[in-house]
Fold this sequence. Notes:
Order of helices and strands: EEEEHE
Mean pLDDT: 89
Largest sheet: 5 strands, mixed
Radius of gyration: 14 Å
Low-confidence stretches: 93-98
Strand content: 25-35%
Amino acid sequence: MEQVWLKQSPENQDLVIFMLGWAATPNAVYHIDPPGCDVLACHNHCGEPEVLQAEDFARYRRIYLFAWSFGVWVAEQICQALPLSLKARWNTFISSGT
Length: 98
């Protein structure tokens, strides 16, 4: 898994984590810039998932997790230890109608 900080500032007290879906890149969320929040995008979920440790994110007052597609499964595997303020997940299937 690759982690890309899209926004990171010592003044920010909150964190938004995007657990991207299969084949998605941070370009999918680079434009999202919530005030007062650092933004971390996790993608390219190849190999063994690396568990995110609460102590690595202890400075944050609130942590918001957004996951979709394959990122939902990855988030369930690696975010168990995080004190999340909000979890949102999208796991959609679109039929081609054929």
